[in-house]
Amino acid sequence: MKLLIVEDESSLRELLARALRKEQYVVETASTYAEASDKLAAYSYDCILLDIMLPDGNGLQLLERLRRADKRENVIIISARDSLEEGADDYLPKPFHLAELSARIQSVIRRSRGGGKGGIALGNVTLDPESCRVEIDGKEVALLKKEFDILSYFMQRPRHVVDKAVLAEAVWGDHVDQSDNFHFVYSQVKNLRRKLEEAGASIEIKAVYGFGYKLID
Ligand code: CA
Predict the structure, then answer these.
(1) What pLDDT, in 10s, does the model give residues 173-183?
(2) 62 CA distance to ligand 1 centroid (A)?
(3) Average pLDDT, the chain
């Protein structure tokens, strides 16, 4: 199993490399956009750990290029920026625990090997990002695009408390008005919760008072 760590902060890069080698991964590293680009052009990896802010470029551009080239590498974004970037298989905000990183790597690799790219299952709910299809107990549930995006966001981080502002930015994008008006979030989440409940889902998006939401199963 071969990994590429793209991270300009040398202490973090070396720490990750050492820890992952101990877990029997083959680990390569790149500290710049240019170096990462060269390696990605020349080799393939089972999983890429990708920092966003690099001294000579943006990790997201690397991700875009991979997707355009139809490369199927699994990508886990490791970044201080708290939003799930489109096209990444997973996302881990800094700081994180090595045990959690290792679990995420295993999970994205397992997911991609399981055929359906990035398909997620939790309780009796399955979600397929490629077909934008959600099933509960094997029966399709019709969701609007934003409802699907919200559910997808939560299913990728079950039992994590998600700030409503972070959710808004992840699902609606950077242009979201950062005023205190999150009515669009409340109403979409409310509709989604109702649909999940009506379809008999074993998962539930719980409100965390004054903060946001949490998906429980
Ligand atoms: Ca960085």
Answers:
(1) 645 555 567 88
(2) 14
(3) 84
Please classify residue 150 by burial: count the beta carbons closer than 10 Å to its beta carbon, then call 0-12 exposed, 13-18 middle and 19+ buried: buried
Where residue 145 falls among pLDDT bands split at 50, 70, 90? confident
pLDDT digits (tens, 9 = 90+) for 89-110: 676 777 778 888 888 888 887 7
Dihedral sign computed on CA atoms, order 114, 118, 119, 122: positive
- DSSP annotation string for 106-145: HHHHHHHHTSSTT-EEETTEEEETTTTEEEETTEEE---H
What distance in angstroms lies between residue 53's CA and the mean position of ligand 1's atoms? 4
Taking the centre of ligand 1 as the mean of its atom positions, its distance from the CA of residue 54, in whole angstroms, is 5
Distance of CA 151 from the midpoint of ligand 1 (Å): 29
Which token pair is 152?
A: 């997808």
From residue 68, alpha-carbon distances to 38, 61, 87 in Å are 16, 10, 11
